[in-house]
Specification:
The chain is mostly helical. The chain has 29 helices and no strands. Helix content is about 75%, strand content about 0%. Helix 9 runs parallel beside helix 11 and helix 19 runs antiparallel to helix 20. It is globular and about 85 Å long. The two termini are about 45 Å apart.
Length: about 550
């Protein structure tokens, strides 16, 4: 087999370093054809050498022009421009995109790849928070792609339209479009670079839409997609930063740190889009653990990408005892920001405004967050809104009213397997119960929160808990104090048809046990720690009266969970 044939085979099998080596060797013997140059450029880009890949893509463009294949030359020009955007070179990018427009306009026949020209337009509008303009541009890209048989344009247009709808608050329609874009990826209908872009953009948008279920599903899929390709650098770092965020939520903080550091390493090796998330997520864990200097350093590294490290940096200032500075930083960050990112900061805004003593501002932020829940059935969003509402009600002097939303939030956090947030709810429940004169319930809630905070190493939360306990004796007792019953667990997740007494997460663990996965494999699949898997299995054995994994597997098959 010739060197060129080996390069083509390696490309088809996604062995990117091999493809680079074989194509490069063949190029030394004789100049590659335009199509082979384009595949070499793609392979180089996917191994993390974006600048070098862009130069080779430019060669492919010139070769297409020399061959008279003007549509392919336009396609190369667009992707050269798109890659330059990712490399942070907007001026060069604009030049290449203008070149692509001119070539398409001069063609006597409609260009199959014309839809790609609308994608950068849509991205620009999306980054500026202009959802309507973005939606129009992406609709054109998708329509032209479908009409002219270009799967890349159709899928990227569908993706962008979904992102625009989420930006505009149309969550259901937007998420449905993201799923549609992912179908083209999973069927291998589109090119490798657009596929990676879609994977990462879908997961990011799921987080912005508070759709934890989809974020889990597509992060696992991206994991498998990256692992199936030899030494893939591009998009792998972004996969790790998304893993870090999920690990953090589920209390697997050591695993979150490891994933964040891996994301940083891959960012340095070429996946520049992972830089912000890698440092931000590491900063979050340091902040939650009380290592404020390390958190500050990570947030500043994240800020160097041009995006504000919020709300993390503001919450760090709050933890450092500087609520006024925290409030100023967060207000600045939220001023003029697009709605999707603003929604992600509202819960922190409530917490910080309360600490700064501005109850009306906290109430306004809580109501803005609650308004999002009216048409969106996302447990994560509802948990944030209910927890915020409870905090505001307590600050306003109505602990009895605060109990109801706080118990709901606590139940939702349990169903989402988010131990830190669930413990924060219990810490606030302790304060509410004490304010209502129920010292026994307050003690039980406080001890439960303390156990979780200690296990996680959440030193600042522990310190706050101890401080509130000391200060509780100074609170004025209500003359109508009554016993606050302990919260009851409620599962807001998705049950299997016959999960019986199991929670949604326990049913998922049963399903994975029946598939033969070890505790370590289950932890990686669900983005939780092995210790948490062991706890779930212990609960499963107790609830079902079983004593072995084989018995759990049999239960799974009997009840349709396998």
């Amino acid at each position: 087999m010739s060197t060129l044939a080996q390069g083509r085979e390696a490309y088809a099998e996604r062995r990117w370093p091999d493809a680079v080596g074989q194509f490069t060797a063949a190029d030394h013997d004789a100049e590659l054809a335009a199509g082979d140059l384009e595949q070499l450029a793609t392979s180089v880009i996917l191994t993390g050498r974006g600048s070098e890949g862009v130069d080779i893509l430019a060669r492919a463009h010139l070769k297409y022009l020399a061959d008279g294949d003007y549509p392919a030359a336009a396609r190369c020009a667009v992707w050269t421009g798109m890659n330059l955007i990712l490399l942070g070179e907007p001026a060069r990018s604009a030049g290449w995109l203008a070149r692509a427009h001119r070539i398409v306009e001069d063609l006597p026949e409609p260009c199959p790849f014309e839809g790609l020209l609308s994608v950068p337009v849509g991205l620009g509008a999306l980054y500026q928070g202009d959802g309507a303009t973005a939606a129009a541009a992406f609709t054109r890209a998708a329509d032209l792609g479908r009409a002219r048989g270009d799967a890349d344009s159709a899928a990227l247009g569908t993706l962008g339209l979904g992102q625009a709808k989420v930006l505009l608050g149309e969550f259901d329609a937007g998420l449905a479009l993201l799923d549609e874009a992912m179908v083209a990826v999973t069927l291998s209908e589109i090119s490798p670079v657009p596929a990676g872009i879609i994977y990462c953009a879908v997961i990011e948008t799921c987080h912005l839409a508070f759709d934890l279920h989809r974020a889990h599903e597509w992060t696992r899929a991206l994991d498998r997609w990256c692992d199936a390709q030899q030494q893939l650098v591009a998009f792998s770092g972004q996969c790790q930063m998304h893993r870090a965020e999920l690990y953090r939520l589920h209390g697997a903080w050591a695993e979150a740190i490891d994933a964040a550091k891996t994301a940083q390493d891959l960012a340095f090796r070429g996946d520049r889009m992972a830089t912000y998330g890698g440092f931000y997520e590491q900063g979050e864990i340091h902040r939650l653990r009380g290592d404020f200097d390390a958190a500050e350093a990570c947030y500043l590294h994240a800020q160097e990408t041009g995006f504000p490290p919020q709300p993390g940096l503001s919450l760090l200032r709050l933890a450092q005892g500087r609520p006024e500075q925290a409030r100023s930083l967060l207000r600045q960050a939220m001023a003029g920001i697009d709605p999707a990112y603003r929604r992600r900061m509202l819960a922190a805004r409530v917490e910080i405004e309360l600490a700064a003593g501005d109850a009306p501002a906290a109430r306004a932020a809580a109501e803005e967050l609650a308004a999002q829940c009216a048409s969106v059935d996302m447990p994560l969003l509802h948990a944030l809104a209910e927890q915020s509402e409870a905090a505001v009600l307590f600050h306003e002097g109505d602990p009895a009213a605060a109990l109801v939303p706080l118990r709901r939030a606590w139940s939702r956090w349990l169903s989402l397997d988010a131990p830190f947030e669930a413990a924060r709810c219990r810490a606030l429940l302790a304060r509410l119960c004490a304010a209502l004169g129920d010292e026994e319930s307050a003690r039980l809630e406080r001890e439960a929160a303390r156990a979780v905070f200690s296990g996680l190493g959440a030193a600042p939360a522990l310190a706050d808990l101890e401080q509130s306990e000391v200060g509780q004796s100074d609170l004025e007792q209500s003359p109508d104090a009554r016993t606050a019953p302990a919260p009851t667990t409620k599962n807001d997740g998705h049950h299997a048809a016959d999960a019986g007494p199991l929670t949604a997460r326990e049913a998922e663990v049963v399903r994975l046990v029946s598939a033969g996965l070890t505790n370590r494999n289950i932890a990686a699949e669900l983005f939780i720690s092995e210790k948490t898997v062991a706890r779930h299995l212990s609960n499963i054995f107790t609830k079902l009266g079983l004593t072995s994994r084989a018995a759990v597997t049999a239960y799974a098959y009997r009840h349709g969970l396998a």
